[in-house]
Amino acid sequence: MARDTSLFSGRPSELIGRQIAGYRIEREIGRGGMAVVYRAHDLRLDRTVALKLLAPELARNDTFRRRFTHESRAAAAIDHPHIVPVFEAGETDGVLYIAMRYVEGSDLRHLLDRRGPLGPEAALRIAAQIASALDEAHDHGLVHRDVKPGNILIARGTDSDHPEHAYLTDFGLTKKSLSLTGFTTVGQFVGTLDYVAPEQISGKPVDGRCDVYGFACVVYETLAGRPPFRRDDDMALLWAHQYDEPPPLTEARPDLPPAADTVLATSLAKSPDDRYGTCLTFVSALRTAMTGNRPPGHAPTQVAVRVANSAVAGPKPPPPWARPVFRGG
C-alpha cells in the first residue's frame, strides 16, 4: 500500500484541491508534530469540515492504528456542546484521518499570545465550559492526556452574557482507560510538556485526575500569562512537574485573592489522590476563591483539611469512573 508522506514534506500546497476519503482539501489551518489540520469540503454531505491527517509513521504502527480507531469511535459517541463533534475517522491510502466540525474562530493559544492574561471573569467562563467537556469525556471512559491551549477552540458566543463558546478538541489521540489497556504503547510520548501530569511522566496508569492537572496548568496560564513551570530545557521541566512546587498564582497576578493559590496548588498536586476529583469541582472552588460566590448547595472547599486527613486515613479510593484503571491494584 502506498504511503503518502507529502503532507509532512513542508509543501502543504500540494494537497490543496485534492480529494481524500470523500473530502476536498481547501487550505491548511493548523500543524503540529503529529498531524496537519485542513479546512475541507465534505463532498457527500456538502458541508465544511476540519480534516486532520496524521503523520504517516503513526499509520505504520499497528498498535497505534488500532488504538486510534477505537478511541476515535468512542470520541464520536460523545454528544456535548463543548466538545468538537467527530464525524468520521478512518484510514485511506496509508493515511489516518479524522473529520470534525469546522469551528470558525481561533484557539486559546492564539488568544493568549494576542491578548496576554485574561481577566478573572473571562478565564472562569472558558474554564467552566472546558471543565464540563472533560468531565463528560471522563464519564465515557476517555482520558484526554493532552489538554493545552492549542486544543481549546474559541468561537463567538451567543450574547453579551456568553461572549465566547469554547470547544475541547483532539480526542483522537487520547487514552480510553476502560478497556484499551493493550493499545496504549505507541512509542511516542502523548502530552505537551508544559501541561503534563507527574504520573504521565513516570509511566503510571492515568485516569481523569491526570486531566485535572493538565487543565489546571492551562487555567493557571490563562490568568498568569505563562504556565506554572518554565525551565531552560525539557528534562528540567519534567523534573519540575514531578518534584517542584508551582509558584503561587498571585506572584504573577497580585490583584487576585490568595485563596486562588490554595485552589491551584491542590489542582497541581503531585499525587492524583490530593487533587480535586473532577474538573468542575476545581473550577467551582476557583470561582469561590476569586469571587466569594458559592453555588447554592455547594459545600465549602476545605483543601488543607482534606489533604491533611488523607495522610492520616490513607489514600482515598478512586472515583467510580477511575476504578477500572485500578482493578487488581
Structure description:
This protein has 329 residues and is an alpha+beta fold. The chain has two domains: 82 residues, 2-Layer Sandwich (Phosphorylase Kinase, domain 1), CATH 3.30.200.20; 222 residues, Transferase(Phosphotransferase) domain 1 (Transferase(Phosphotransferase), domain 1), CATH 1.10.510. Helix content is 35%, strand content 19%. It is built from eleven helices and eleven strands. The strands form three sheets. A six-stranded antiparallel beta sheet has the order 1-2-3-4-6-5. It has a three-stranded antiparallel beta sheet with strand order 7-9-10. It has a two-stranded antiparallel sheet with strand order 8-11. A hairpin with a 4-residue loop joins strand 3 and strand 4. Helix 4 runs antiparallel to helix 6 and helix 9 runs antiparallel to helix 10. The radius of gyration is 20 Å and the shape is globular. The N and C termini lie far apart (43 Å). The N terminus and C terminus are likely disordered.
